[in-house]
Amino acid sequence: MTDTTQKKFPGWRLSVAPMMEWTDRNCRVFHRLLTQRTLLYTEMVTTGALIHGDVARHLDFHDVEHPVALQLGGSEPADLAHAARLGAQWGYDEINLNCGCPSERVQRGAFGACLMAEPALVRDCVKAMVDAVALPVTVKHRIGIDQGESYEFVRDFVGTVAEGGCRVFIVHARNAWLKGLSPKENREIPPLRYEMVYRLKRDFPDFAIVLNGGVTTDVQIAEHLQHVDGVMLGRHAYHEPWALAVWDAGFLGAGHAPATAASRSAVEEAWVAHLDSLHRAGQPWMSAMRHAMGLWNGVPGARRWRQVWSDHRLRGESPRAVQQRAAEAMRQALAETSTG
């Protein structure tokens, strides 16, 4: 694929996947300290939660999170149009429809991966949202459902949904098995078939095709970008967050210097300032800190650092005080290593 083709869809070149109970607003603030240009996604928010629940609780976010996309779960066009309008009102940069989650809880709500069996309904949902907002409306889906291996299935799904106005498809390169596998097993057992995603790009050159699933290194990112418009990473980005720190310079056109240990310390300092603001507001900062536990992975003393930050006996202390304890634990670990 030529650079010219990719330049048509620069906003989706790299992104962090929506992950339930993980990519909340505090997680996204932390990720934004590491990368300014990577596209971030919310956890999935159902239309029912927005129609019947506390809208602000589900949609509020920090301005620093931009660019940030709202992922919706639902299957009623009118409800999704209403939810999309709320997302636009709240200031999100994109509305994404979840057609990839295989969990039985999501299936009971008649959305997620089971929607791939109803492409005409997804088309109508997309059209309702496209008509309701001026934002990009995108779809995240799998390459198939259950154990079918037909490329024509996903090709026809994309072709039908595109009739509703979708031009960006984020494709998890595994099937979703709707019965018999847990969500975790659905991320590991169905085989990855990247060539099917590449083929979608060849068959739909005017659409943005973003690949998701099993990507864990910058080398892999670079290889996939030879074939598709973008790459979305999920659990690797969450558990190894420092990987994000080189993406702006390495893939997104920013002229930043490569990440260094000194800049890792600067990220920690800015993150602790955020935690302190939560603490002063009376919010539980330790639940936010869990998103940053991988910050020092691979650095001597990181295990001791994590142990201090995860010690629930310290949850009543200020984050700044805990930071000092963690730094001292890291220094002691380094001293023991050098004298051992």
UniProtKB/TrEMBL annotation:
The keyword Isomerase does not apply. Belongs to the dus family. Belongs to the Dus family. DusA subfamily. The record marks 98, 184, 187, 303, 306 as: Interacts with tRNA. InterPro entries: Aldolase_TIM, DUS-like_FMN-bd, DUS_fam, DusA, tRNA_hU_synthase_CS. Catalyzes the synthesis of 5,6-dihydrouridine (D), a modified base found in the D-loop of most tRNAs, via the reduction of the C5-C6 double bond in target uridines. Specifically modifies U20 and U20a in tRNAs. FMN binds at residues 18-20, 71, 140, 172, 212-214, 234-235. Its EC number is 1.3.1.91. Its cofactor is FMN. It catalyses: 5,6-dihydrouridine(20a) in tRNA + NAD(+) = uridine(20a) in tRNA + NADH + H(+); 5,6-dihydrouridine(20) in tRNA + NADP(+) = uridine(20) in tRNA + NADPH + H(+); 5,6-dihydrouridine(20a) in tRNA + NADP(+) = uridine(20a) in tRNA + NADPH + H(+); 5,6-dihydrouridine(20) in tRNA + NAD(+) = uridine(20) in tRNA + NADH + H(+). This is tRNA-dihydrouridine(20/20a) synthase. Residues 16-326 form the DUS-like FMN-binding domain. It comes from Rivibacter subsaxonicus. One of its GO terms (molecular function) is tRNA binding. The gene is dusA.
